[in-house]
Design goal:
This protein is of the alpha/beta class. Helices cover about 45% and strands about 15% of the residues.
Length: about 300
Amino acid sequence: MQQASMTALVSAFSSAYHSENNDVRIFDDSVARSLLSEQEFNQIGKSMAQGIQFFNPGFTGNDAGALRWIVDNQLSPSPLGRSAFTEQALKNAVNHGTKQYLIFAAGYDSFAYRQPEWASPLRIFELDHPLMSMEKQSRINRVFEKSPDNLTYLPVDLAVTRIDQSLFADTGYDRSQSSFCSLLGISYYLSKESFIDLIGGISKMVCIGSTIVFDYPDQDTYTDKAGERAKKQVMLASHAGEAMLASYSYSDMETLLSNCGFSICEHMEAEEITEQYFSEYNRANPQRIMSAFDNVNYCLAVKK
């Protein structure tokens, strides 16, 4: 964390690229591009294009075509799909009375700065590593004159800090109000013990009826059964110094959540995710079909 998380930067880049280069979008992040400098955006694009033979051996074409292939096949599916899933679930939760949105490991998440009118009743809390949070706010401050009135930043290292009431002291967080908690991209980088502690801490913090949403790697992710994209993603994360640590079967996750007081109310695997969130884009771009990422599941659970 001595520098911006490479995973967070690449996720922002891929979301920005998708929004800028498509009329029909799987997920439209209108803020992501402004969080990256021109130099960063161009350098990430150049570096990715130069790595085309790693992603797609035998590819023939120019750098622009190489970058497009890498973004559509390797970089964008995860951040686009899970964001679309999460924000649709959040909208449903708000319509049913949810008043608080907790974004864990927020990274360059831009929801607070592009929030639609239906989000106006929300109190939004962004939790992230202190250095990442500071770095993100520095970028935000170059674009926006002030933070939204309903946003609170909470610097916290989720790998070592237990989630409890003291963390939210003097923030306006109300434990009696229903909360929606997003934990996108977290489960890969925490040990199972740390992930269980995180879910357990959240369970103690939120009231009955509150929701958590997250993506997670399935039980085949780190085996020979994994898809080629998943294998490459594991390699990339390792080379970036952000090693992936854990994977889960559906049964593992169901038991983990139940032990922490949550019940699964929606669970999606890659084929269903593609059908639900990628179909409109694919119909508009039959030559550039995109699919949800290999060996990644989405989960929505409610506190019992």
